[in-house]
Each structure stands twice: as structure tokens, then as C-alpha cells.
Amino acid sequence: MNRLPLLLLVIVGLAAGVFLTRSQAPNLGPADGLDLAPLDTGRVSIGDVAPDFTLDSRTGDRTTLSELRGRRIVLVFYRGHW
């Protein structure tokens, strides 16, 4: 029995699934501060209070850093493309 057509169908289905998933991914990242220079490393120094910013979550909710003041949080910054 020739399994090549079935294998090709599975591969095409997986490729279509990956393409559709990527094209429908939410736009993650900062919702503000888009006018700031990406390489402006002098704005914050060690020990400074982190500047306020807002991020969109995967569910579409917005989280603002100032809403979390008083709680222990860890900020991890990733320089790259989502």
C-alpha cells in the first residue's frame, strides 16, 4: 500500500495549521512608548524605579506596571521580534 499520498496530506495539513496559527497570533508587545528610541539605554539606571508602561496580554487584557506597585514582580526584557 502506497503511503506517500497520506504522508503528503499530513505534511500539507501541518504546514497549513502552522501558517494559520501564525497569521492569527495576537499582537504582543508594548502598547505605548512606540515613539521611544529602541537603543536608548541611558533612560533607566540600576536602582531606579521602573518607568510605567502598559502591555497587552494574550487574552487581550491590558496590564500596567503601576497597577502592580507594592507587589513583588520580576521584569524580564527581551530584545527581539515576537
Task: Give the radius of gyration.
Answer: 21 Å
Number of helices: 1
Strand order of the largest sheet: 1-2-3
Quick check: average pLDDT?
76
Main sheet makeup: 3 strands, antiparallel
User: What proportion of the residues is helical, as a percent range?
Assistant: 10-25%
What is this entry, summarized?
The protein is α+β, with helices and mostly antiparallel strands.
Structure description:
It is a single chain. This protein is α+β, with helices and mostly antiparallel strands. It has one domain. It is 24% helix and 10% strand. It is built from one helix and three strands; from the N terminus they run αβββ. Strands 1-2-3 form a three-stranded antiparallel sheet, with no helix packed on it. The mean pLDDT is 76.
Descriptive keywords:
single chain; about 80 residues; alpha+beta; three-stranded antiparallel β-sheet; elongated
What are the SSEs and their pairings?
Elements: H1 4-23, E1 29-30, E2 54-56, E3 62-64
Antiparallel strand pairs: 1-2, 2-3
